Each structure stands twice: as C-alpha cells, then as structure tokens.
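Researcher: For the record, we're logging two predictions in this thread. I'll number them. Prediction 1 follows.
Model: Prediction 1, sequence and structure:
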Amino acid sequence: MKGNLDGVISCVHHNTRPAATISWFMRDGTHDIPLNSTTNQTLSADLITFSVTSEMAIGQILLLVNMQSLVLLVCKSHNPYSVVQESDSKVLLDISQNDPFEKQPDLPEDPVYAIQNQDLVLECPLTIAVEDSIVLWMAKSLETKNSGYLIYSAYGVVPSMDTDEQVSLDKSGDLVISQVGLQHEGQYACVHSTVNNTKSFLQRVEVIVQPTPSKVLVEGCKLFQPCSFYITETKTITCKVNGVHPEMELKIKALSTNLAVINTEVSTYEDEGLFYTSIYGDVIVVDDSCQENGTIICQALGPAAYIFKSDVHITISSHREKCPQISDAPLPADKAVWISPYYIIILTITVASLICIVLLPIIVHIKHRRNRRHLDQLDSRVFDVEKKLDDSKKDNYELKERLAKQEEGHQKLLKINNDMEQYSRRNNLRIFGMKEDPNENTMDVFVKLAKEKLKLELNTDFIDRCHRLGRSTPGHILDPY
C-alpha cells in the first residue's frame, strides 16, 4: 500500500477475551524493530469479547530507514488464553514520493512479446540476493494509464495477496504470468529496495494473438488448397487476416514480370482488442509480356507474423492472344533453304534441352504444390491439437482453482468448529478425585457433593448433563465430570 508520511496505519483484532495485546514492528531481514503505537480496546457487540485497535504513525519510520522506500511492517497479536496464542499480519508500505512509471517515462524500445495462453517470465535484474531485499512488482495499463501493485517478496518470503491468481514470483524474484491474456498487456515495473538503495526497472509487454484461422485468407480460394485465378484483363484480389493482435500490415505485390498490382486499398477495424485487416488490389496483365502464368503474394507483416502462416502465393493464368504468332504458311519455292544434317542434330539437342528446361520447373512446381497441400493439412491438424491442448490446460487450471477454494473453505470450517467447541465449554465444570461406585447415579453424586462440601442447595433441574470421563472402573478414583 502507498504510505502517507503524515498518516497513521491501524491494526485491529476482533472478538478476543481477554483483550489481546497488539504491537507494531518493522522487519529488517530477520530482525523485528519495535515501533511506537497507541492501543484502544472496546467491548464487542456480543458484550463478552473485546476488539483491540493499535495505531502507528507512519512518519516515525523515516527515522529508521536510509534510502529504503519499501518497508515491511508486522502487526503482532498476543493472547495466552486463545486457541491461537500468537498471530501476525504483514503489510508492505511504499513510502517513496515518486511513481516508478513517472520517474522513468521512457520505456525500452523493444517490448517483451508474449503469446496468448502461454506462460511469460519477466526478469528483474537484482544486484543483491532476494533473501536480503524487498522486490515489488507493479503494473500499469497502456489504455487506462492506472498503475497498481501486483505481488511482492520480502526477504525471500512471498505472502499471499488477493490479486490476479495467474501472477506469481519465482525464487529469483522474477514475475511469472501463466496463461497470458490481453488483460496482461501493459507496462511492468520491478522495484528493488534495500537498506542503502532503491531501484526500479521498466518493461513493456505486448501480447500476440494469432488469427483465426492461423493463415492469410484469400477470397475465392479454399482454406487448405493452392490458390489460383484465371484472368483476361484484370482481377480484384482480396486478402484478409482475422482476429489478430497487435495490428498487422498487409501487402499484396506481383512476383512475376507479366503481372502488376494497382489500386490497392487497406481497411482495418478492431473488436475487443483484436484486429481484422483486409487489402484489395487489382491484378492486371502487362501488355508486352508473353508469359501465360504468373504469381502474386499476399503477405502479413508484424510481430505476430512468425507464429502463423503469414503469406500466401496466388497463381494467375492469362491468355496469349496479344503475343506474336509464328506463321504456318510454307515458304515460297524460290525461298527454299537447304539444312545441313549437323544443324538438324544441333537443333534436336537444343529442342530436347529446352524441353527439359521447361518440364523440370513444371515437375518441381507440381511437387511443390503437392507438398504445400500436405503442409497445409498438417498445419490444420497441429492447430486442432494445440487448441485441444489449450482447452485441456484451461480445464486443469479451473479444477485446481476449485480444489484450492474447497480446501480453503474446509480449513475455515474446521476453525469455526473449533471456536464453537471452545465457546460451548465455558459453562462446563470438571471435578477430580471422586471414587467410582458400581451402578452409581452421577447426577445424585454431584448434587450430594454440592450440598455437603460446597453448601449449595442444588437439584437435578440445574444440571444439563453429568457423566464420568474414561473407562468405568469401580473402586478407582477417576476424573468423573
């Protein structure tokens, strides 16, 4: 909590009898330094127990610390007659005058990228061991600009806090965020405080969410099959990326000299932190080209590009009507040409080489398309398996959470039951040294004892129950009541 140097901090212990003794201490490693405080006790509403309040002025802490801005305070309660004789409560007090996010407004240029539903570890560069210092983690949302305390470690001990259950600390003081979500995106500050110094380290976290499905989509093409179009003059191509974070840049460009992409237009909208981006472009055939096929590419650029299939190649087929054609008319008789057999051999070898040169890329392209189809199918299966695995992890986490809550409720019920049993015994009386007789009536024995020894006029209407404790042994002296 943030400490106002002019304010006070209070500690209250309710429903104790007799009244508990409360004291304030400042913990310095393994030592507890006592602090001055004022105590006040009041009678509780049940008119039986007491409530004790101890107030301590925060300003006196400045006399005990040097350059330390994080102080661990301990409120100890002592009651020798209670079931739990000793108890304490701890609070981490931040007495610094500056917000670490305002003190260092310049964030690192390169953020820490975290993939959704995976674990993230943020390192805190410590110069002194965790056991000899206090480590506090704070978070600040990039949208709301509000900062808050997350979790802390005081001299190697991590107390339980009512914060995000996905946040924890490891033995090195590093922050561990399990199952990262968009809500964890923002700035994080690690404040490291010792007796002689206090430093803070800032990091910026950006969460990456892969699109659904995890690839660039092309309108008019099937999801896991090669994409191709036939055009005569022009064709409008639309590429999309759905539900990705952070926002990505989409580009569409021609990879072949016989094609060109013009009139490109990009549209983007956001829904619950996820971005949906589309790009439109007109593909045209270059007039002075005689190629029949060409390729264009739709490509997504951004931090999330490396976790999904961020590009797609599109085959464009066109006509060749505008290419010059070779005439099939025979040469005139006066233009007849004699061709040497050597030229025929060379021509045959050249044609065969050209055929090999042409066929080889086609065969490679066919195999490439077949391999690409298999890879797309494998990508789909891997995506399904990863989704099922994420769902299983989520179900396992929810079951662990329910079990922890049930265990906590069980412990509370045990404590309440123990308190009720102790409270119910306040009117019980136990008598020692009474000889046991066969077939005795313990109620009559006690009434006779009260009249003869205690001079009390009692009858059985005053007693709810009366019995001996332990195994019945006539003639022995046991604890009867």
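Researcher: Logged. Prediction 2.
Model: Prediction 2, sequence and structure:
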Amino acid sequence: MPRFKYTYFKSPWACLSSCAALILLVLTMFQAFFTAYPYFRPPKLMDPQTQQNAAENSHDPIPTSVVVDIHSLTSEDTDLKLLRETAGSESCCIVRIPHSLARINPIAYEPKIVSIGPYHHGKEHLKMAQQHKRRFLKFLVAKMQEKGTNPQELINAVSTLEGDIRGSYSEDLGLESEELVEMMVLDGCFILTLFLVVSGKVVCTNLDDPIFRMPWILPSIRADLLLLENQVPHVLLQALFETSNLVTSSCLNELAFEFLDYSLQKPETFWAKHYSLEAKHLLDLIRKTFVPVTSKKLHFRGIKFKPRMNTDSILDIRFRNDSSNHITSYVAFMACLINEESDAAFLSERRILENYFGTEEEVSRFYKSIGKDVALDLERSYLAKVFEGVNEYSSKGFHVHCAEFVHTHFDSPWTFASSFAALLLLMFAALQVFFAAYSYFKPPKDK
C-alpha cells in the first residue's frame, strides 16, 4: 500500500493523472454496460392508451393553500433562552462548553465536589459541599461582626450587581431575584472564606473542620474552581471582599493566587507581577497570568491606542478586545506533536514534557481527546509562524532525507550496530571484488 501511494499519488500531477485514468475507466465500464443492457433486456413497448394514462398520472397533485399567520412566527418564544441575544457581548464571560468538546469527555467539564454558580447547582453528587456553604457563611458573618461590620451589607452589595451577574452568563438562569442573590452570596462567601483561611488572614479555630482537614477535599475544590461552567463573576467576589472588610493589607488576587498556588506551584515573584490584573472570573484570572495581555502591557508603558479614520490601508490595525487563542493554539500544537505513545515518550525523555499521568499512553490519549474538534484560526494564532516553519522545514530538502536516514539506521544502539556491521560487510565485499579483479587483470609475476 505505501508503494502504491508513492507511485500514483506522490505529486499533484501523478494524483491528477491517476484520478483521470480511474474516471475514464469507470465511464468506459458504464458505457459498455448501457450498450449491452438493451441487447439482453429490450424495453417493453406500451400501447398509446397506456402511455397517455401514465402521462396523466405522472403529474404531481396541486397542493392546497395553507394559511399561516406570519406574526405568530415572529412572536417571542416564552421558553428560557439557552443562548441569550446578548451572549456575544464582552460582558458575557461564563458559557456552556460546546457539545462537540463536552461529548468527548463529559465528566472533564463537571465539578467533582462543589458547584459554583447556577449551571451545576443542585446536582446530587455536589450536595455534600453545598451543605457546608451555610456554615462557611455563618463563620464569615461572625468575623465581620467582630470587626463591627454589618453582615447585611453582603446582601446589599450582591443585590446591586444583579444585572451584571445575569449578563455574565450566556443563558437565561430561570431564577427569581431572591434565589439568585442567595446563590451568589453563598457561593461567593464560600470562595472568599476558603481564600481567607488558607492564606492565614483569618484564623479558623475548628481544627477538625473536614474541608481543611481531609487531604482530598481542598485539591478537588481547587480543580472545581477552575472549570468554565463553575464560575461566578470576579466583580461579585471583589464586592464581597471589599464589603467584608476583613483584610486591608492584601488584594483579592493575592489571596486567590495563594490559594491556587498549592496546585500550580509558582514562585511568589511570579504571582506578584499579576496582583493588579483585571479578570472576569477566577479561570480568566489564571489564564491571564499565563497568557500575556499585550495591549495592556503596551498601555502601561505609555502607548496609546487611537482609531484611524477613513482609511482602506491593510496596515490599519484595529484593536477590539484583549481576548486571545493562546491556549487553543497550544492545545492544537501539542495535539499535532503527540499522536502516539512513542511521541509522548520521546518528549518526556528530552524533558520537554512532564508526565503526571503515569504512562505515555495516557498522555497521548489525553492530547488526542482534548485536541479533537478544536476550532483554530491558524492565521490569528501566536504559533502561526511555528506551524508554518515546521511544515516548511520538514516537507522538503536534503536535511529531511539525512534525518530520515539517521533515524532509520542510527536511532538506537542495535540499529547502529546492525548498520555498522552491514557497512563493514559491504566494504569487505567491495575489497574482495577489487582484489579479485586486480589479480585477474594484473596477475602477480613469478619470481
């Protein structure tokens, strides 16, 4: 099969000629068939009356007119919108995972222990953590009262943000104002209490608290807080943080980084550079620490962005927002690199990839599944030059053939030994032929 492909499809011209020959062969077969068919099966002749009846019956019946009120089709649908009309706005930042991705591994996008926000609220396997949210709120309220802060201000702060909160989600939530405010206060204060206790800014006197004592719970919560469908707006957390008035020496981002660093393992100097980041939710905050926001960096260095009016030049650059496809580009690139178990092993051996899965097969399966059905605009990718350069370098040239030769014959000690032995055998055979021919044409002189 490889030799067949190489012979007939190694170039566009060979492929074109092969396809043309195949089409010509198919057409010739059809022509031969239809030429021979009437000879063996001649058509039946119909009398004139039968032909007339068949012609009359061949007409399609004229459909009766259907009355549909056009205004009924344009009336508003009363069902909850699964994708609101304003879901495309910049304020909408918490969306459902597309079905094309979720169907590959549905449990990868669902929280394991705690629901945050409305999308997974009320699920049976998340009720355990849900029961602790009121206890955490009670703890936070007690600390606020010790400081002389009215805890009712938490409700007031969230109520004023109801419109912003609803606008952050891509679908209609189907919740009354009271239900939404209650959910946001419980979820937001649960996150805030976690941040305060783990960072040591607030002391938890209950040393046997299962949330902090049982070793598997906090790592699971950290993972759940970084799921796209398991988010609350960052502006909500900021409002609760400022209203609680429990910490004034640190910002919310600092507490979030300290809590999540147990999983991400970055030096303090790394996080300190991102204390002033503005984010839409916790996942967006972490994303921005790894993806450079170029426009803001330039703005902080004094570069101003202004619109250029009345121009058709291709150099007229317009900036819309600071979103990027860096993560998607990275996933697509790694999925291209790792297609088999041997690819993962190769990158692990060269310390390019750290394998936390256990086996190379699991690494390969992970990247093949996460990279499946990824929609990537390569022209807008920050790795566009890398894709282009790798494809160009590896598609042609003498160095490609040299690399393939070296990989085939000298990739391991065994292939090297066999290739070296074959080379020696070839050299000895050549020498034997040479001396045999030399002795024939120039026999040694008798002394």
